[in-house]
Each structure stands twice: as structure tokens, then as C-alpha cells.
Design goal:
The complex is a heterodimer of chains A (about 110) and B (about 110). Helices cover about 0% and strands about 45% of the residues of chain A. Chain A has about 110 residues and is mainly β. The termini of chain A are far apart. In chain A, a hairpin with a 5-residue loop joins strand 6 and strand 7. Helices cover about 0% and strands about 55% of the residues of chain B. Classes of the chains: A mainly beta (about 110), B mainly beta (about 110). At the A-B interface, strand 4, strand 5, strand 8 and strand 9 of A face strand 4, strand 5, strand 9 and strand 10 of B.
């Protein structure tokens, strides 16, 4: 595709429900990142997929968070048993792994847990 | 944990003035990048500087890198109201790890 696509753009869910956030990276990009951004704050690293290597999950805040990347392309971030503190904008980015690591971002998913 | 720390946290200037934002980081880097974010959504890449470079220009943007001080600065010259946004620096360690780590950002307001 022309850019990184994320869906849904907005999601309101009840506390305790599970949510799935989707990211379609730019075709051919082998690196994919998930970040979380609370209102007025910086980007909190969540998880990083790099080619066929094991993902770097060091940023996932709890075991309620998980992510997968199927076929080296689309990625899904799953949050189980959502809590109000999970409310944030979830940003996905992709890049090539050629040394110039410019990342291209999607427009994010705004998650609101009520 | 966040690698970069930008300062100031917020900066307000008049149109036509120059804006300087700084970024400090803790560990050795391969590349340092600056990004811009409007309205709390997707970030847009502005400029990348490699660890063996000291200065880079792109239009009204000038970036410097001082690896001995582990710091970088972003200068926007002749600012415009449309430059109002949050600006973030991001670093990667290179080698086999291209993970980008972002700072907390500087909110720039350019008043018309």
C-alpha cells in the first residue's frame, strides 16, 4: 500500500473486554514497531518485529498485551481484559532494514476504555 | 525506558523567529532522527543524521550531532505558524538492532 494503515482509527471498549488493533505496514518493510502514546506524552515502545528474528517484546507493559505478525506483513496487537489505564493512542510504524532506519507511521488507533 | 530526552518541553515563539530544540541520549547510537507530530496522531520523519556526521541541512531545518556530548539539536529557521507541532528525536543502536527509541518531545508553538 501507499502507507502504513491502522484500523480501527478509534475504538471505545468496556473495561474487561479484549481488543485487537491492526496494522498493515508498507509492502516490503521488514521492521514493524508498536508504540503507545498517552495524551501529551512521548512514545512508549511496546514491541518490535525485525525480519525473521524473534520480536523484541521488552516494552509490553503486562501479560495482557500481546502482538503477532503473520507472514512478515500484517500485525495485530491484542489487549486482553482492558483497563482504563490502557486508554491511549496506539501507533504502528514500519521501516526497511537497510541502515537508513526512517520509520513510516500510521495514523494510530485511539483506544478509550470506559 | 526512553533513550532520548528533548528540551525544552515546550517552546513558544513568534513567526519568523528561529526555533531550537535539543535532544540528549544515554547510550551509543547508529543514527539519530527527528520526527514531527501534529494533533497527536502519526509522526512524520524530518531528517536523519548518522553517528559519523556532525551537521545536516534540509530546507529550513538544520540538525547537529555531538556524539561526545551525546546530544543533538534541531534548528528551524524563519518559523511559520504551520510549524506548530510536537518534535521528537529517535535513536537506534545499529548493528543488528534497528529498534527506534523516542524521547518525550518538544511542543513548539509558533504564534502568527
Amino acid at each position: 500500500g501507499a502507507g502504513v494503515s491502522q484500523s480501527p482509527s478509534n475504538k471505545v471498549t468496556e473495561k474487561g473486554k479484549d481488543v485487537e488493533l491492526r496494522c498493515d505496514p508498507i509492502s516490503g518493510h521488514t521492521a514493524l514497531y508498536w508504540y503507545r502514546q498517552s495524551l501529551g506524552q512521548g512514545l512508549e515502545f511496546l514491541i518490535y518485529f525485525q525480519g525473521n528474528s524473534a520480536p523484541d517484546k521488552s516494552g509490553l507493559p503486562s501479560d495482557r498485551f500481546s502482538a503477532e505478525r503473520t507472514g512478515g506483513s500484517v500485525s495485530t496487537l491484542t489487549i486482553q481484559r482492558t483497563q482504563q489505564e490502557d486508554s491511549a493512542v496506539y501507533l504502528c510504524a514500519s521501516s526497511q532494514m537497510t541502515g537508513a532506519t526512517e520509520a513510516f507511521f500510521g495514523q494510530g488507533t485511539r483506544l478509550t476504555v470506559v | 525506558s526512553q533513550q532520548g530526552e528533548e528540551d525544552p518541553q515546550a517552546l513558544s515563539i513568534q513567526e519568523g523567529e528561529n526555533a531550537t530544540m535539543n535532544c540528549s541520549y544515554k547510550t551509543s547510537i547508529n543514527n539519530l532522527q527527528w520526527y514531527r507530530q501534529n494533533s497527536g496522531r502519526g509522526l512524520v520523519h524530518l531528517i536523519l543524521i548518522r553517528s559519523n556526521e556532525r551537521e545536516k541541512h534540509s530546507g529550513r531545518l538544520r540538525v547537529t550531532l555531538d556524539t561526545s556530548k551525546k546530544s543533538s539539536s534541531l534548528l528551524i529557521t524563519a518559523s511559520r505558524a504551520a510549524d506548530t507541532a510536537s518534535y521528537f528525536c529517535a535513536t537506534d543502536s545499529g548493528g543488528s538492532n534497528y529498534k527506534l527509541t523516542f524521547g518525550k518531545g518538544t511542543l513548539l508553538t509558533v504564534n502568527p
